[in-house]
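Thread amino acids onto this structure.
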């Protein structure tokens, strides 16, 4: 019997080598992953092909985005109509694409960041999400700002909130964003080890604490899956410091968690979760920035696993 990971209603197995890459192609690493309505898997990479698309069995279908991004692709989100929002923190923009790779829109001035910590969009944005009720686009502006910005579905600026700090409604690093069917906006505030929840206008509602460097999240079937990055500031090799995935209900109660005590690229292990997605069968996909956080520091530097599939286990 295959080993399972997680607990209770959230147990997973490990699908080793799920993605079948074309010959000579690598991911380098994967900052984001998303699943469309047909269970096709879109993988955001920092390699030669910025967006790679696979079918549910891991067969490569196509790639797109070459020439549209820097090597700092950062966040990937898929909407109800299968359009994609992609953050590039070196371009300082959010780009919108159709599923076939046609570019539809770009928000922000390409390679023209606003003043750092000045509050205007953007300075190194990290991710974006769409509010289902009205199509508004919410952007976490997280490396050179401590803000959440709201735009119309056509890309017109509406309002912002947040400032640098650790109080309610402030951010250390707003790194990823999700929106539920009740228009609640969830923001992972990575270096503050918390998730903050707001209403559609940015009013603070509640906070979930004690989540180690939450890096990415996805809403699925009334639960939120959260990936935790590894340690930092000399704690990168400390046991049980991140490199794991947790499943929470919408009140912030932990339902299950898995990930080994130490970093790794095998079954039940992670190095640096940075993107997360779930398909219609409940299978989990985890994208990792494993080269940046691990592989480049090896001697010699080498690429590590940066995408994994975890099918739901009974």
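Threaded sequence (314 positions):
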């Amino acid at each position: 019997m295959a080993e399972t990971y997680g607990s209770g209603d959230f147990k997973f197995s490990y699908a080793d080598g799920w993605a079948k890459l074309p010959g000579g192609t690598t991911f380098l690493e994967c900052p984001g992953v998303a699943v469309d309505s047909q269970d096709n898997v879109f993988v955001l990479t920092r390699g030669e092909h910025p967006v790679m698309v696979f079918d549910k069995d891991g067969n490569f279908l196509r790639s797109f985005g070459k020439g549209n991004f820097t090597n700092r692709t950062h966040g990937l989100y898929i909407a109800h109509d299968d359009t994609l929002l992609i953050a590039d923190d070196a371009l300082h923009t959010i780009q919108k694409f159709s599923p076939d790779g046609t570019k539809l829109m770009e928000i922000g001035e390409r390679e023209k960041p606003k003043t750092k910590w000045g509050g205007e969009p953007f300075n190194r944005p990290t991710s974006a999400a769409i509010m289902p009720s009205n199509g508004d686009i919410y952007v976490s502006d997280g490396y050179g700002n401590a803000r959440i910005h709201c735009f119309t579905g056509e890309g017109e600026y509406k309002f912002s909130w947040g400032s640098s700090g650790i109080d309610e409604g402030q951010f250390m690093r707003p790194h990823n964003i999700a929106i539920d069917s009740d228009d609640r906006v969830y923001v992972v505030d990575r270096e503050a080890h918390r998730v903050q929840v707001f209403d559609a206008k940015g009013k603070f509602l509640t906070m979930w604490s004690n989540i180690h460097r939450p890096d990415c999240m996805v809403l699925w079937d009334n639960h939120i899956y959260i990936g935790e990055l590894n340690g930092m500031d000399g704690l990168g090799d400390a046991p049980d410091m991140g490199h794991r995935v947790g499943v929470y209900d919408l009140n912030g109660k932990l339902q299950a968690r898995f990930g080994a005590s130490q970093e790794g690229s095998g079954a039940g292990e992670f190095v640096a979760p940075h993107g997360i997605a779930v398909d219609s069968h409940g299978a989990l996909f985890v994208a990792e920035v494993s080269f940046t956080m691990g592989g480049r520091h090896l001697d010699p530097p080498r690429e590590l696993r940066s995408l994994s599939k975890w099918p739901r286990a009974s």
